[in-house]
Design brief:
By secondary structure, this protein is α/β, with parallel strands linked by helices. It has one domain: Aldolase class I (TIM Barrel, Alpha-Beta Barrel). The radius of gyration is 19 Å and the shape is globular. The structure holds flavin mononucleotide. Flavin mononucleotide (FMN) binds next to strand 4 and strand 6.
């Protein structure tokens, strides 16, 4: 069944199939019965999977990385599918269209995908409003202060934040601040994304002093809030050993909550098929 479905879906562009599948899932989940059936098929509930990590009560440790639900449109559906956490984003202060299409490429022989989306998203205000509604729809409340003695294990929401393409690197910290403040009430943890290869120059922010400026600033803002959210840094898989040492040293020095390893690679090593597609130009 899956093979047949896959053959049909592979006739269409990856991005079109993504949107089509998620819309279909949304319709299936829109009724009480549909939701019940999907949850019973996909959600494996077992207290053994409960995971307390970063002080957060994950119902299970299997989550969805950033980029799948960039605009927080499908949280109910992803909850139905059983995920323990969903990382929304990357979001930027202002909405932006991302790179021209096509910008996702299948490499079937390698069971791989090339991503050059370029932070297409609806902007942080739209996403924050969706997350606010999600939070109020959930009794235990995303982002509420957890009781570590008796936590409610649930689907945890992450907020992956970035900068707009037009924002120069020297002012990037302001974009991270805007996103951080807008989402702080509605997400459980933050991921600072400086490692996407699809925003020109973004990865230069992985240099130690640029990182320090952004991360320490966010930590200061965090410390002034009533509730402190864990702040993690998402790194590229293409860093040199020296860069990795710098990141690790900084993370320890400023007591960062964690690292997310890793973002999309720019390496095309080990692929069996020619893949000149999807390279970011300029
Ligand atoms: C189509 C696509 C879009 C992505 N968008 C984002 C994004 O917006 N922000 C981000 O931090 N990572 C993004 N990623 C990277 C993934 O979150 C993940 O880090 C990456 O795919 C590596 O994980 P994997 O080896 O399991 O694929 C994207 C990946 C893909 C394939």
């Amino acid at each position: 069944m899956y093979t047949l479905l896959r053959t049909i879906l592979f006739k269409f562009s990856p991005e079109a199939v993504h949107h089509f599948s998620m819309k279909a899932l949304k319709i299936s989940c829109s009724t009480w019965l549909g939701k019940k059936i999907l949850s019973s098929l996909f959600t494996y509930k077992n207290p053994k999977l409960h995971t307390l990590f970063l002080g957060l009560p994950f119902r299970n440790p299997v989550g969805l990385a950033a980029g799948f639900d960039k605009n927080a449109e499908y949280l109910r559906e992803l909850e139905c599918l059983g995920f323990g956490f969903v990382e929304t984003g990357t979001v930027t202060p202002k909405a932006q269209p991302g790179n021209d299409k096509p910008r996702v490429f299948r490499l079937p022989a390698d069971k791989a995908l090339i991503n050059r989306m370029g932070f297409n998203n609806e902007g942080v205000d739209v996403v924050a409003e969706r997350l606010r509604k999600w939070k109020t729809s959930r009794e235990s409340g995303v982002g509420s202060q957890e009781s570590t003695a008796n936590p409610t294990y649930r689907m945890i929401i992450g907020g992956n934040i970035g900068k707009n393409k037009v924002t120069p690197n020297e002012e990037a910290w302001k974009d991270y601040e805007i996103c951080f403040n807008a989402l702080h009430d509605y997400v459980d943890y933050f991921v600072v994304n400086v490692s996407s290869p699809n925003t020109p120059g973004l990865r230069e922010l992985q240099e130690k002093e640029s990182l320090r400026k952004i991360l320490v600033h966010l930590q200061t803002l965090n410390s002034e809030k009533a509730i402190q959210r864990p702040i993690l840094l998402k790194i590229a898989p293409d860093l040199t050993n020296e860069q990795l040492d710098d990141v690790a040293a900084l993370a320890l020095e400023i007591k960062l909550d964690g690292l997310v390893a890793t973002n999309t690679t720019i390496s095309r090593e080990g692929l069996s098929q020619e893949s000149g597609v999807g390279r970011l130009e300029g």
